[in-house]
Amino acid sequence: MDGINEGINISKTYNKRVTTGIDKLDNLLSGGLPENSITLVSGTPGSGKTILCYQYLWEGINKNEKCLFITSDERVSYIIKQANQFGFDFKPFIEQGLINFLYLDIDKTEIYRKVEEEIRSGNYTRVVLDSLTPVSEVPVWVSDVHEIIPTDGATETTKYPTGSIPATRMHIRRIMNMLSKDNCTALVTSEIPEGSRNLSRDTVSEFIADGIIILGLDTTMDRRKLTIRKMRSTNHTLKPHDIKITETGINFI
Amino acid sequence: MQEDPILYILNDLLNYEEILACMVARHNMISVMPDQEKFKPEVMQIWDIIHRAMEDVFVVIREYSQTGLGEIEFRLQNYEALFYIFPDTENALVAIIPALANKGLIEIEMENARREILKIMEQKEIPTNQ
Is B39 in CB contact (< 8 Å) with chain A? Predict the structure, then answer.
C-alpha cells in the first residue's frame, strides 16, 4: 500500500475525450468521456447497459485501441454471441489481440488479483466491467484501513463490519482504483432494482464514479431514456433523452 | 419526436390556457413530455418541488393501480397536479393547473386525452429485441 495518498490520482485532468461510439452522446459530453475516467452506467434490467458497453468497445477497436471486457454476469461465449446479434463481431479482433474478455468467477477469492494483473499487463485503454453489482457483493474481510480482501469466510470485524457502508465504500473504491490505472477509461455497469431511487445497486459507486449515465425503461409506454446525471469536467444537460435500441445498438431519437 | 402521436395529444392539451404543464409519466421517469419551453413560465418556478411530490404519488399509483385506482390529485401552493392513471399500469397522464382553475372542462379534456392515449397504447407492440 502506498499510504495516505493511495487511491488519489492527482494527475487526472480530463482534457482529452474518449468517444463512446454514439455520436449524439459524444456531442452531449463535449466530445466523449473524459480520458482516464470511470463512468457508471446504471439502469434496470433490459435498459441497454451492456449494449452501450458493446458500442464503446467497438468504437475502441475501430480506433485500434486495446479493449477489455470484464464480465461477472454472463459467460464469455454468451457475451460474444449476444454482441454479434447487434452487429458487433468481436471474434476476429480477439484473435488479433485488440480485445480480451475476462470472466470473473465471483466465487473465487482471487478476483482482485486477476483483474489487476490483466489490466496491468494488457496495456488497455478501454475497460468495461459488466457488472459491478455481483463483484461489489462478494463478501470481503476488512483488515484495518488499508486492506480489503475477498474471502470465502467473511466474518464481521469490530472496525468495519461486513456489509457496512465504510466496508462497501472501501470495497468499491478498491475496484474502481483497479480500473483507473494505466490510462484506462472505464465503463462500469450497475443494476438498479425497479422502483429504486438509488443510482446504483450498492448506493455507493455513484459517489465514487467520475460520471453517471442512467438508462431508463418504461415498458408500458414503450419508451427508453438516457440521462447524463454526472460527468466531471463536462458541461452537460441533465435532461433525459429519448433513445431506441435497434439492431445497430443504442440510437438517439 | 413530433410524429409521436402521444406527444401530439399532450401538445394539444397545452393549448388550454389553464393547463400549465402536462406529461405522461411513471415513477422515476417522465416518459413523454412536450418541450418544456411550452410550459407556462410560472410552473417552472416550482417545477422541482412538484416533480418531487409527483414521485411520491407514483409510489401510491404503483401500489393501487391494479386495484382500480383511477385518479389522484393534490394541491401544492397555488397549483394542483391531476393524475389520470392508465388502468392496471404504473403510468399516468399528469397535468398541472392553477389551484383555482375551473376544473369542469379540464377534466373532460383530460379524460378524452387519457382515452386517446390508451387507444395508441393498445395499437402499439412492445419490442422484444432487448
Answer: no
* B81 contacts B94 by C-beta, under 8 angstroms: yes
**Which CATH code of 3.40.630.30, 3.20.20.70, 3.50.50.60, 3.40.50.300 fits the domain covering A30-139+170-212+232-237?**
3.40.50.300
Whether residue B62 lies within 8 A of chain A, CB to CB, comes out as yes
pLDDT tens digits for range A165-201: 677 777 788 888 888 876 899 999 998 887 777 888 7
Taking the C-alpha atoms of residue A192 and residue A207, their distance in angstroms, rounded to an integer, is 15
Q: Which residue of A has its CA nearest to B2?
A: A253
Beta bridge partners of A99: A67
Per the CB < 8 Å rule, is A48 touching B1?
Answer: no
A85 pLDDT above the threshold of 50: yes
Residue A107 in grid coordinates: 466465487
State how far residue B25 is from chain A, nearest Cα, in angstroms.
9
* Residue at B72 is within a domain: yes
Does any CB of chain A come closer than 8 Å to the CB of residue B119?
A: no
Please tell me the pTM assigned to this model.
0.82
Owning domain of residue B36: 5-121
Q: How many helices (H) and strands (E) does chain A have?
A: 8, 13
